[in-house]
# Entry
Amino acid sequence: MLFNSVAFLIFLPVVVLLYYLLPQKFCWVLLLAASYVFYGSWKIEFLCLIIFSTIVDFYVGKLMHRATEKWRRNALLAVSLTANLGLLFVFKYLVLFLPPMDPMIANIYTVDHPFLGFIVQGIYFTIPVGISFYTFQTLSYTIDIYHRRIEPETHIGHFALFVTFFPQLVAGPIERFSRLMPQLKEKHQATYRQFQKAFRLMLYGFFIKMCIADNLSPLVDMVYDNPALFNGWSTWFGTFGFGLQIYTDFAGYSLIAQGAALCLGINLIDNFKTPYFSTSIGEFWNRWHISLSNWFRDYLYIPLGGNKVSLLRWSVNILAVFIISGFWHGANYTFLIWGAIHGLLYLVERGINARKRLPQTRLVRFIGGILIFASVNLAWLFFRIDTLTDVPNHVSQLFHSTGATVLELTWPLVAMLGVFLVFELLLYNNRIDRLLDKFNLPLRWTIYALFVWCITAWAGVTNHPFIYFQF
Amino acid sequence: MHKGLHTTLKIAIRLLVGAVVLFSFNLIYWKYFWMKDLDKHGPMLYNLIEIQDTFDAFYFGESSNFTTHPDDYNQLRISDNISAEFEGWRLGALNHGAYHVGMFRPLVSRVHNFKNRKTVIVTMNLRTFNQDVIYSPSEANLQLSTRFYKRSPALLNRVFVSFNYYDNRSGHERDLLKWKAWTYDTLKSTYDSISFEKNTIRRWCEVPKFLDSNGVQDDAKRQLADQYIKAYAFQIDEHNPMLKEFDDLVGIAKRKNLNLVFNLIPENIEDAQLYIGDNLVWLMRSNRDFLVERYTEQGILVVDNLELLESKHFIDRAVIPQEHYDAEGRERVGKSVANALKNQRTNVTDPE
# Structure
């Protein structure tokens, strides 16, 4: 079930209504059932993967907590890692090592062998939605128990809800057990203020996803499909447009997720904080996909030694973390290179700062911001492009365009980009629900009306699933 | 005031203001933006709105109506050929490649209720009922357009499209359903001299064909033969979704007092016989009989052109079984429909 679907617009209010009507002790059953319905609406078969992951991690967690011997705890951690990363490997990366398959052959095979066919489809064509997110979330649970940072959950139903909580199930934010579980167990009272905040988060989320990302998507696709067709300006717009598209798509999703969770009284962490206004790569990663950055910091970077190792080792670790985070996005070498570029930029930045720390004047920060914006957006080229062999052609078209076609920007899109830019500036170090508190009622309602108008009349038309669903 | 009541009142006022705002937005959208969206995403309704007050009748068709073939001695469409038979009678053609009754039905529902009974001719393509069309990969885009054709407030249709409230299953998913149907939908004979030893499309396609004396297969002919099986080896029954669309269309025409005419367009029976044989032709004819009988009984004029044309009139006959006719073919289909309308005028009522 997509957030931007009529089904979800009906599903959410029904769940919220039942949630506040039911006695507290049944709320987890409702949310778990709702989450399974939400996830199963994509492909019911993939529910068995999430249930498998839930069962493995629940019992591993319990056994690990009881175990006192180091080897037993290590073995149990290995079981959890193998099960979760194994799932991820089979459904996301195995395709790299297999010969290509014709979609039609896969369909015929699925008709003849439904069970194996569903696995083949999952490996080649329809990666189970959100697998990278929920496997990472459950991994953080077992690793935290391993390090005795948390106590294991004793109720499998509650644990299953932690794994599948529908607002953040398919594309995060990746939550920690210690933060989410207590909220899921708590008794929540419906308040006007809470729904007001949720409405604001969701409204702005829908606006940036449906009006900015979905309207940019066809333009970006056209340029990436055939850059030689377009003139210089259009090629640059399409290339940089992807940076804006992926940001508004994913940040939009995260805001809707936060809003949906808040309707149930649950606070999810902020996943984006106006990342394109960052003045350094380090700052960018503190503002972009924050829950994943934190995950890699806590469960990969720090275990590798953090900053308490030699400079050479630290540099290798940084590069490794960025490359792995790139690879997390998908089974393509282009993601590896995207991650490596960010790793190198980070190392260069740290190198410069180590030699001579630049004064943090407005001018320096401004120039830094421009450089980071340009580098990050050019790096997106590797993220978006289909194959590495397309890169030279695309880059050469940026600087020596051979085409004459001009991308057609409609005036509603230009107007909405303007509105978005204004709000991004206002939202620097702020959040939409808090920002709107500062405005008086008429201005607030004008803003609501503006967003509602854009969503209803000017949203993108063709079907664009959230980009991060494929990860 | 009691706090609970205050909150309820606050929410009620907001809901009321929200409803007024949405109502106003619908008016603004309908007046200033709707036609632009239609032009882009729902072109047939755009055309219908443009022409419906100035034409006496409408022809809803797909690519069978026109040609892009350079060798044709004229470019007249089937609808032009019908129109030519009635002096002063203005027949507006609305055609779009790959469209089918699923799109025509909501469009016909948008035809105004006129004082004079208007004639609406709708193309009835036998292949529309097959699994290849029902599960076509282009269906998602067609369904998107269809959403714009529905008789709901303009802004609501727009919202439904952007919130994915239409059948937008991917081509891959549809292909899987098609293969399921080709594997499990069985053919049954009700005629003594016809039997289906290979009673599913898949099994029938797997049979070796066009083998020479050395057992070597003529691949080109075999592929074309298989295309014929995939196109016509089906039996229309009450569960066929396209049949329901045609039934609904009949209901709409009756409510709107339209003179609904189905133009059952020609198929290449000659090549179906040549490449496959009696079994396939029997299926084509029995499907035709089913449709003609069903809709004639409901008082609809069904012009049966299924066997009107010889193979030479099918432009794509060497590649694929498809209803793309040469100029003479279109002329003959047009004349056939016109004659049926003339007969109807003589027997029942004026086509206008």
Notes: The mean pLDDT of chain B is 92.
